[in-house]
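Researcher: Go.
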Amino acid sequence: MITQITFEYRTGMIKGTEEFADSLRTSYNVNEIPTWMPAAGGNYEMWFDIFLNTNLIDFLKGSIVGGAVYDIAKDKIFKPFIDSLNKLGETNDGALEIQKYRFYFQDAKVVVYGLANNFTSIFSAIFQELLNSFSLMENEIGVGSVNEIRIPVEPDSGRNEWWVGPEEIGPYLTYWGISVQHGLDNLVWDVQNKKFL
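Model: Structure:
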């Protein structure tokens, strides 16, 4: 179901990137892109693009069966990715600074910002909440209108400025930026109250 994982990382600081890429290649097509950054930046920055050959709601329904709590660490699609990411984190002295994950589905893109620690629990909570909220969003604005979900965002600006996010689940389940009609309109979804602001 994952057709490609592309990751970009800062050269010179992160140890074990070749081993990380090799471990991913046992399960996925992988493209690694080393990036130079000035010394004033952080040390362990990474960015991920993950391409899936299904639409978002079919993925969610297939992964979360019978209302069970979703566990990304046990999901056969993501388990090799999570295991490899955990090992990369253990290989390095400092914490990874993963700026964003972009999940490209056939019908929508999901962007998760600043998630470098506790990602197993946080991803699981995000995907569970996406299953609970996606049809509500589409019912309110029209089926097929949602083309990007950004998690999380500030409610006033609809943007995310995190370099590294918190390690708790809560902030990821507050406000989501929703682009509809291919960016023509941008809305903010109040996750707790299940409504657009």
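Model: The chain has a mean pLDDT of 87.
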